[in-house]
From TrEMBL, chain B:
Gene3D superfamilies listed in its UniProt record: 3.30.70.100
Record-given protein name: BLUF domain-containing protein
Domain BLUF: from-to ranges: 5-100
Secretion signal span: none
Amino acid sequence: MDVSRYVHDAERATRDALTGLFNRASFHQLLREKLVVAQRTGEALAVLCIDLDRFKSVNDTLGHPVGDGLLAKVGERLRSMSRETDFVARLGGDEFGILQTGGDQPLAAQAMATRLVDLIGRTYVVDGHMLNIGASVGIALAPGDSSNPEVLLKRADLALYKAKVDGRGTFRFFEGEMDARMQARRAMEINIRKAMALKELELVYQPQVHLETNAVVGFEALLRWNNAERGVVSPADFIPLAEEIGLIVPIGDWVLRTACHEAASWSQPVSIAVNLSPVQFRNAKLIESVVSALASSGLDPGRLELEITEGALLENTERVLSVLNALRAIGVRISMDDFGTGYSSLSYLQKFPFDKIKIDQSFVRGNTDDSNAIVRAVAGLGASLGIRTTAEGVETVEQLNRIRAQGCHEVQGYFTGRPMAATAAASLLNATSSH
Amino acid sequence: MANDVYRLVYYSRNRMTGTPDDLAASIATILNTSQANNGKVGVTGALMFNSGFFGQVLEGPQAAVESVFERIQQDDRHGEVSLLAFETAPTRSFEGWSMGFVGASVPDAARYGAIVQDSGFDPTRMSGNALFETLHHLALDDEKLAAA
């Protein structure tokens, strides 16, 4: 009886078809077996989780055949650098894993990871294309980090996550605090999701005052989160996470609808400013969301001001311009927020007619020659381009007088009005309209 | 299309350590292996080197050039590999394998002379081609760095 076919089939079941490396299932099996042996012998093992950086863009721009060719070459490189005591696997997609046995840990794992980042990061040529990708690596050690295969893999993954956060193209060993930090993050994520359902989010409104007439000409809607356990959570503490996990889109949608409804009920047709996150700005449903918020509230589109930061404008000029123009076509106004803190590309001011530039509070509060010169220059820039300018963060009468002298049109800050509840904003407008 | 000659040019830094004689021995091995392996798959070209630098031109069918280059990339005797060109070429510039020491160091020239004397490396053939001249300049700069 010829058993070679059965042996061959059994072998194939443990391998990844594209790279010939171990597949995920056999990698887990190997890990379990080697951990049992290591516990008996007292030997240290290392698990390395590897993620390719920028692989997706190769697949997206050049197609799957080139992507597959690249993965095969990555597999070849990993194999070329591994010894008989190393087990290399493709865990799926662009994820690889190496189980390193028989080494002097953690030095062996560190040497391997260093080599790996260098080797995988070297240029590839595939089907006539020059390709550049990188590798991020997370390492967990047994028995130090755990002798349980699932826990060990999870910890290598946490270290991988850290390597990516730290800028990719590098490696990190698992550290105890990564677990705690990840748990805090997960708890925060659950809480943000709940906040939507429990209606813990609310908007407050900060007045914007015209410098010549001293009249309130608009409000900026600002997000507040009042959590039963955490108290008032600052947007700086939850917006970045909400952006990362995509929750900013439904949150932003809610903000738009709520702000439009509120403004539609005001006794004066002043403007309502709403911040757009760069993530929302890149989202394909933004236009739909704006149209829908305007339609359901009945708000005049000319009263809605969308504030975008320079961060939203950084990439892909053509697409950015088409979104800005589509928003303009609906009739809403567009403000450049926090001007001066980021990229401050003057070419954007030329390519797209912003309705307003908001000068960042750091220039308003910093009473130095430099910050004064910057405020004056931006006010002058606005005046000559026909764009209104608003100074943010005015807290004292001195700052107000200075801003006035420098030629800004409007002002927003604690001195002219703190953020207030919706009812207070409505009353403020009622009070001034009855004069 | 399938008969097109592809030309790949790269430049990398030498990571080998050891005495000058060790280095000379390693380079001799590299040259022998390249000649033997690349000839079989129809890849020809030129290798320039000195104590700090490798510069190589590979010419041949696309798939063969890609696989030879991939093997070179997996070699940790060099690093910081810059791919200067990867394109189709009307004809081969190198019909066989040639290799040459390019550098200003007199002792190195003497040491490597024996290795390269039979390879047919002719720097004058390279003058006039901007890419080869670039490689040559890079080589001289790196030799200075390695000596410093």
